[in-house]
Design a protein that fits this description.
alpha/beta; 6-stranded mixed beta sheet; 7 helices; 6 strands; 29% helix; disordered C terminus
């Protein structure tokens, strides 16, 4: 029988109230390092704007006239002042606008995300808060919650649509990244030293039927840039 995957459950004040069982298919698999690496590389590549552009010698203005005659002056022969060796000349093999995105199938993206979440769960760095009952946004109470849970370093907080006060409390903390479940991706999970869910958002992540990367996420399924 497979061992259950659990995480500690906390109140919004940071008091430990018990444990919650996580979906082993999402938080309890053997991490596939190769797939995680490939998907993270694809995510970072797709984030590049690809807008760098330089002019070749054919695109630089001027240089139509040969600067001096071919022979007799003791100087190297030159055909144009717009050649790459001239100041103000064209650039050889310079950057041109391009699309850096890589094709990563949906199953690969999903496996990478589950692998990243499983790696954090195996290290005991997946924390679950019952719910946020805070009446007003205060950065101090968010920092106190993380300290009470023993969370240090970089933190990924996954909040639901009704956690607006919590979002405003966490957003001013350095090294804290806030996402909704549909924005979860391997890079942000691996970036964080700990991942904090609510009972609602960890349940969304655990429902495999709806546990998909958002359609407008970082990868492209084809050359037109539309994810299926």
């Amino acid at each position: 029988m497979a061992e259950k995957t659990t995480a500690k459950l906390y109140s919004d004040a940071g008091t430990e109230t018990g444990e919650i069982t996580l979906d082993s298919a999402v938080f309890g698999i053997e991490p596939n390092v190769a797939v995680m690496h490939q998907v993270v590389v694809a995510q970072l590549a797709a984030a590049r704007s690809g807008s760098g552009s330089t002019k070749t010698r054919s695109e630089v203005r001027g240089g139509g006239r040969k600067p001096w005659r071919q022979k007799g002056l003791g100087r190297a022969r030159q055909g144009s002042t717009r050649s790459p060796q001239w100041r103000g000349g064209g650039i050889t093999f310079g950057p041109k606008p391009r699309d850096y995105s890589q094709r990563t199938p949906r199953k690969m993206r999903r496996l990478a995300l589950c692998s990243a979440l499983s790696a954090r769960a195996a290290d005991g760095q997946v924390k679950v808060v019952e719910s946020f009952g805070w009446e007003e946004p205060k950065t101090r109470q968010a920092a106190a919650l993380l300290a009470a849970m023993g969370v240090e370093g970089k933190v990924l907080v996954v909040l639901g649509p009704g956690d607006g006060i919590a979002e405003r409390s966490f957003r001013n903390l350095p090294l804290v990244n806030i996402l909704v479940p549909g924005q979860l991706n391997p890079y942000d999970v691996l970036w964080a030293d700990a991942v904090v869910f609510t009972r609602e958002t960890v349940g969304v992540a655990g429902r495999r039927a709806t546990y998909e990367v958002a359609a407008d996420d970082f990868v492209r399924e084809d050359g037109e840039g539309e994810a299926s």
